[in-house]
Amino acid sequence: MSSHETPAVGRTSLLDRLVPAIRSFAALPEMLAIQRTLPISFAGLIVGLVVFMAILPTGSLLDRFAHSFAAAFGIMSSFLVVVLAFDLAPRRGVPRILGTLVAVGAFAISLPYANAGSFVALEKALGSSGLFLAIGVGLMTIGVIATARARFGALAGSIVGSTLVIGLALVLVARGISVTAGLTALIAPLGTLGDSLTALLIITFAETLLWTIGIHGPALLAAVVLPVYINLQLQNTDALAHGDPLPHIVTVSMFIFVFPGGAGATFPLVLLLLRGRTKRVRRVALASLVPAIVNANEPLMFGLPLVLNPVLGVPFVITPLVLGVVSYYAMAFGIVARPAYYIPSTVPLGLGAFLATKDWRSIVLIIVNLAIGLAIYAPFVAIYDRAENQREREHESEAGAAA
């Protein structure tokens, strides 16, 4: 070997360095807690919608739904700070009851009371910025108490940490500093940047690329992305309630059109795999069919698997990007109405799109997107299916020879 040659051993590609770093970040206790509790907190949204729709005195069911939306997200935020602190506390060695009570206390002190004359008005003033507030308060509370306990011991550290958290919240209020107002101001420019085709494609690319290496992309990005796009969704809902044009295209419900079947737009993939030549592939596809209808594709991700799959990983990333472009321009040109309401991704395909837009053409767009997805996935599925069929034959031959 000449002195100018570099040994192959020791070379580390950017991907080799990046993947472990991303996985380590995703495995942090704070990220694990956020990934676990954000979906759970949507129960608070449902409860809030039911309660506020029931107490509104007049209006149609749809009108009351629209007017209850912002306040319901306030309830979701309140619920999130509880479950987040409760889940994160033992991960950081903090007593659950202590961490949860201190987090709830700091959150309650930080609410925007100056902008509200009633409970409903308070929850509306909190709105989607409350999600950022809940996450920030939850993480800060547990982090401060855990650090204090490590420094001063269990008892003294718990007292010092709790005092610091509550004291900081009280000082901010005493000085007239509204954390909620600050977060709302922070979200405003993010929302402007977020409502664009570029932002939509970046988020879509990041989520799908992370999934290909086994990291739950939507869950990892949710802490930053969800509050921003829920805020834009609320603005659309409010505009509709006042009879104004909907201002935003890229909202939470926009991703219904980008990810039919779940991340990677895998519903077309499931349909193609149902016709596979190998028994194992057909079994996985059949088991994934019903979950795919409600946009859940974990059985496919880990059963096939799609994670670290060099063949199917390519259309898994490309397909949502193409569907994002098609859906964005369909709404930008007024061919399909913009999403007016937040609809959970677990609502079945087609129905969720219609409920989000109140436009029958949204169902046509879903069908068009599925057709595009079939066209993109088909050649890659053919390659994958041939390889799996060959592997199955070789395995059967080896088994027969061994017998």
Describe this structure in words.
- By secondary structure, the chain is mainly α.
- The chain contains 17 helices and no strands.
- α2 packs parallel to α10 and α8 packs across α10 (217-241).
- The two termini are 48 Å apart.
- 42% of the residues are buried.
- The model is unreliable at 1-12 (pLDDT under 50).
Secondary-structure map with pairings?
Layout: H1 14-26, H2 29-55, H3 61-91, H4 96-109, H5 119-126, H6 129-152, H7 154-174, H8 179-194, H9 197-212, H10 217-241, H11 255-258, H12 267-273, H13 279-293, H14 298-303, H15 313-332, H16 351-357, H17 361-402
Helix pairs in contact: 2-3, 2-10, 3-4, 3-5, 3-6, 3-10, 4-6, 4-7, 6-7, 6-8, 6-10, 8-10, 9-10, 9-15, 12-13, 12-17, 15-17, 16-17
**SSE-based structural type:** mainly alpha
Number of strand elements: 0
- Global mean pLDDT: 83
Largest β sheet strand count, sense and barrel closure: none
Task: Give the termini separation.
Answer: 48 Å
- Per DSSP, what share of the residues sits in E-state strands of 2 or more residues? under 5%
Radius of gyration: 24 Å
Shape verdict: globular
N to C succession of SSEs: HHHHHHHHHHHHHHHHH
Show unreliable segments.
1-12
- The helicity comes to over 70%
How many individual helices?
Answer: 17
